[in-house]
Structures are given as C-alpha cells and as structure tokens.
C-alpha cells in the first residue's frame, strides 16, 4: 500500500519551524547573564517582563488598536491550551458558572479542558452561519437560563461556591468560547457586527468571551493571483479590542473578553508559550493563578527565546517571508486540487466573501448521502489517507444538540504534509469517494 498521507494533523510541517532563528535566540539568551539569570530562575507571576513589553508592541503594530497596548494588559502563558485551563481556574466556579457556550463546529480538544474544570455535561454549542456566531440563538438560550436561575434561587437550590472570594477573582456566570478568525475547523471569520453583538450579550449576561486568536497572523489573499495590501496588519478587529472601545469601553474593570494567543503556530508548538491580552485588572487576576504564584508564569526560559525572536525582528520576518507565503501556496494548491478532483463529485467549499484567508484547514461539504465517519474510515482503509470527520467537532455532551452532527463535513489540514502529498491526498480522497458512491 502507498505510504500514509495525513491531512488530519494540525501541526506545522517541520520545514516551517524557524530552527536557525531559535538557535540564535537561545544562544544569545543562554550566553547573556542578564537574560539567563532571569530565564533560568522562578519568574514574575505575570511572565517575563521584557517579553510582555515586546508582545504589547508587536500586537499594537499588528492589530492597530486606537491606543497602544500597554504591557499591564499582557500575561505570558504556557500557550492557548494551558491558559484556557488557567482562565477557568481563576474566573469560573462550577457552582456559580452555569454554562460553557462553544461556537460550533468547535476546536474539539477544548472540550476536555472544560470537563476538567468541572463543567462536564454543561457544554453547549452555538451554531454558526456565514457571519459566524448565531446571536439570536445565544440570546434566546441565555434568557431561558436566566429565568431558570431565578427559579433555582427561589428554591434555594444553589450549590455553595467552591472557590473563596479573592480581590483578584471575578467569577463569570457564563463562558463563551470561540475562534473568531480562521476558525478551526470551519475557516470562518466572524463579522464585525457579530463581534459587537457578542460583546453586548456578554456584558448583559455576565459572560466571559475567551477567544483563541491563534491563527490571526497566518493570513494571505483568498485570490491566488493577488496579494494582501497589508499582510502585516490584522484584517479584522479582535473581540478584546471590540470590548475595549465599544459603547464607551468595558462594562467594568475586568472586561468581558480575553484574547488567548499562542506562539505554537508562528514559531513551534513545542515551545508551549503564549500570551493573553485583557484588561489590566483581568491580567493581574490571571497572574494570581495558584500555580503562577508558586514559581511564576509558565515557560519562563522559552519566554526569553521568544523575546529574542521578537526584539531582533526574526519572528516578524519568519511570519512575513516564510509562513505566509508557504501557507498561502499550500492553501491555494489544495484548493485547486479540490476544484479539480472533488467539486466534480459533488463536494462544496464554504462560501468565502473575504479578501483574506488563513489558518490551517479546509472545511469541505460532502455530496449526499455520503457520511463523513464512513468516508474517513474508507479513506484510511483503502487509501492510507487520514482526514478528520465532521462529528469530531461537535460539542461533547451537549444534550440540546441544536447544532448539526457535521456528518456532512470533513476537515483537511494543509499545514502538516509535504506540498506534493497535499494534492496526492486530495486525489486519494476522490478515489475513496468514487468507490463509496459506486457501492451505495
Ligand atoms: C483553536 C485552537 N486553539 C488552541 C490550539 C492549541 O494551542 P496551543 O498549542 O497554544 O496550546 C489550537 C491548535 O490546534 C487550535 O486550533
């Protein structure tokens, strides 16, 4: 059998890792006493100070908010996954926080993190349409829950909170989890008016919006023969910036949004290093997480390497000169293979009215009556091709199941395989589909 092609894996191809830049950055950090003496010690709760400063400048230049981002809005983290757990530890209590709302299809690995924080059985999906999150659905469900909560108080059936009151802790009643730009897996970009509506809902219902803004820098033109006018500037306003300015600014000093950023996609996942941006009050609260109080923010030595990469412009150059062109070429070559081999079989691509595309994935709709789970199994058995079937991205344990089960979709990653295997993978998928159609 031909060798395995993996279009499931959401990892960067090894050729896209900036090994030389990291070698230079780490050599500088480890040969400079003023850097390694801090880097190899316990560090500050908020994270390595020079990196907070440089991340604030770097984000200011990319997102161009109305005012510069100050370092007191930034915490250094162990990446988006570690930090999602950290946010939940400080800002939720399973006896107070009622529901976790996840824009669906969702990044499936987040479900376990919510389960671990005590929310198993309380994860709910919010459907997406072309503009992103379905606000009418969310508003209806939040209003229903509020009525139920009033009744529960009347019956004195509230549990006692597990977590003690602390001046740095605010417990939120709801969590809303989303990847608003280049979503994994749907590739969608939430529109600005939905972003604004979501922030207004969050303020009204005491919800914290956690956004995984992990793909924002991986952007390029959605037209193969055009270039973005400003590849070094974000094309959409982050939710954390919406909350910073909308209707005269945050509802209170904690705010209702936190941006969860990561160096996994722009340097390498093995660094396990990221950042958050939020109000300064929220950032301080996050830094008071018990495990950060005991020894400082995670990834202290990695933070010194990343800091070297930012301050020397190596990171900017890697994103602009290596990652954006490489992912752009991969994306367009997979799309043209899909147009050639899969669209004639009845597949369809999500409509994209944006000038910009980005991220790691393509979300494809199958011709009916094909089922994604069956097709993924066939692709593996018959073609040695690994793909992700849509049902993987449902919200686990959601009893409402207002969202679809996504049996009509598959996700293809264009980040991991070598370019020639990307088009070969699409060809193998077409073979599996032809066989499946013949046998149905
Ligand atoms: C939406 C989303 N969030 C988080 C992660 C993981 O981020 P990190 O490596 O920083 O934990 C990924 C990686 O695939 C992702 O797609």
Automatic annotation (TrEMBL):
GO terms for molecular function: 2-aminoadipate transaminase activity; pyridoxal phosphate binding. It holds the Pfam family Aminotran_1_2. It comes from the Eukaryota. InterPro entries: Aminotransferase_I/II_large (IPR004839), PyrdxlP-dep_Trfase (IPR015424), PyrdxlP-dep_Trfase_major (IPR015421), PyrdxlP-dep_Trfase_small (IPR015422). Keywords: Coiled coil. Signal peptide: none annotated. This is Aminotransferase class I/classII large domain-containing protein. It comes from Elaphomyces granulatus.
């Amino acid at each position: 059998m031909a060798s395995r092609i993996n279009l499931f894996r959401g990892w960067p191809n090894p050729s896209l890792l900036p090994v030389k830049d990291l070698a230079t950055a780490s050599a500088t950090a480890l040969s400079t006493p003023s850097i390694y003496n801090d880097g190899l010690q316990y560090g500050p709760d908020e994270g390595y100070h020079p990196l907070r400063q440089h991340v604030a400048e770097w984000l200011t230049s990319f997102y161009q908010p109305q005012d510069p981002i100050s370092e007191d809005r930034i915490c250094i983290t162990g990446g988006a996954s570690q930090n999602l757990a950290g946010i939940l530890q400080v800002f939720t209590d399973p006896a107070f926080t009622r529901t976790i709302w996840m824009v669906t299809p969702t990044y499936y690995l987040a479900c376990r993190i919510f389960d671990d924080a005590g929310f198993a059985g309380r994860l709910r999906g919010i459907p997406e349409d072309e503009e992103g999150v379905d606000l009418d659905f969310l508003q209806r469900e939040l209003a229903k829950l509020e009525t139920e909560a009033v009744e529960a108080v009347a019956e004195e059936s509230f549990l006692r909170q597990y977590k003690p009151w602390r001046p740095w802790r605010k417990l939120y009643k709801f969590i809303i989890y989303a990847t608003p730009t280049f979503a994994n897996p749907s590739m969608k970009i939430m529109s600005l008016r939905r972003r604004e509506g979501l922030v207004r809902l969050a303020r009204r219902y005491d919800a914290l919006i956690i956004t995984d803004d992990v793909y924002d820098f991986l952007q390029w033109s959605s037209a193969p023969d055009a270039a973005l006018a400003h590849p070094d500037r974000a094309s959409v306003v982050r939710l954390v910036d919406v909350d910073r300015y909308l209707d005269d600014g945050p509802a209170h000093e904690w705010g209702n949004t936190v941006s969860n950023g990561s160096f996994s996609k722009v340097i390498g996942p093995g660094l396990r290093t990221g950042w958050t941006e939020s109000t300064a009050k929220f950032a301080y609260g996050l830094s008071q997480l018990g495990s950060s109080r005991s020894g400082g923010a995670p990834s202290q030595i990695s933070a010194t390497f990343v800091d070297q990469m930012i301050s020397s412009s190596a990171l900017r150059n890697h994103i602009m000169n290596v990652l954006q062109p490489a992912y752009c070429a991969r994306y367009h070559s997979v799309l043209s293979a899909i147009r050639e081999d899969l669209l004639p079989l009845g597949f369809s691509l999500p409509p994209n009215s944006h000038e910009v595309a980005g991220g790691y994935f393509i979300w494809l709709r199958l011709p009916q009556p094909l089922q994604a789970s069956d097709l993924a199994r066939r692709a593996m058995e018959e073609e040695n091709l690994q793909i992700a079937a849509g049902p993987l991205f449902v919200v686990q344990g959601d009893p409402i199941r207002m969202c679809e089960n996504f049996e009509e979709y598959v996700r293809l990653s264009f980040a991991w395989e070598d370019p020639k295997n990307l088009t070969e993978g699409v060809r193998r998928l077409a073979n599996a589909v032809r066989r499946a159609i013949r046998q149905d």
